[in-house]
Amino acid sequence: MVGTELEQVADELRGADRLLLTTHENPDGDALGSLLGMHLLLSQLDKDGAMFLAADEFPLPHEYRYLPLEGVLNAPPADLDERLVVFLDCGNIDRMPADFLRAEGIRIVNIDHHHDNTRFGEVNLVDPLASCTAELVWRLAHELGAELTPPMAEALYVGLVTDTGRFMYRSTGAEAHRMAAELIDAGASPHAVNRQVFESLPFCRLELLARGLARVVRFDDGAITTTHLTRDDFAETGADETDSEGIVDHLRSVDGTAVAVLVRDLLAEDRAGLRKVSMRAVDG
Description:
Blueprint: H1 2-15, E1 18-23, H2 29-44, E2 48-51, E3 84-88, E4 108-112, E5 123-126, H3 133-143, H4 150-163, H5 174-185, H6 190-198, H7 203-214, E6 217-219, E7 224-229, H8 231-237, H9 247-252, E8 259-265, E9 275-281
Parallel strand pairs: 1-2, 1-3, 3-4, 4-5, 7-8
Antiparallel strand pairs: 6-7, 8-9
Helix pairs in contact: 1-3, 2-3, 2-4, 3-4, 4-5
């Protein structure tokens, strides 16, 4: 089935001259790496693959700001009705809260690896066995006969290394390592990506992490490990919402934990009093 879906999506991409690429809200490394990788793939095929992210997604998380995403659109293009819309790494269309993307007549291609994807596209490439959405973009590059350029390889490597937890999650199979080897051969630098994504974080993120770790509470004989962050924590450390990324992963690393939970206040004034709950299962 996935092989057929791959061919169908490849045909859609071949047949479109102008496309609009997007991903889910609060984009992570796989979302942004897949978005940029697909953009570079389409550019190589002489296609106009514009990228869209809502304006309130900026600034992006610190670790991804080095990615060359300067040309991203924050508003719908005037020729939207003439573009094929490609969703990447988005399990549900409601995770991309932009009403214009739900307009009647828009043709959607949905490329994702999440098992609960709602298959909301006219054409879908959904493979829960893939390690990341970047892996599906990599497969499409092969299907379309595209060359893996160094910038494309680096973008896809960001998606791969972040969504596999640096190759530690259960979703990491032999194919992920084959992909990594090919991306490195094509010019991706594991050292550069690791340095940018995992070892160049602002000090305020460390301060925020310290506050979160100081409040850890465990339930159910340690199976559930939780913490919380308040608006004051963000204000006093100078951190923004993106700086809370990764805290829940520290909780899931505690021996005996089955589920890690981070509860944090939302910072936007129109969302005062609301909280976001992030949950991670330990099985990866």
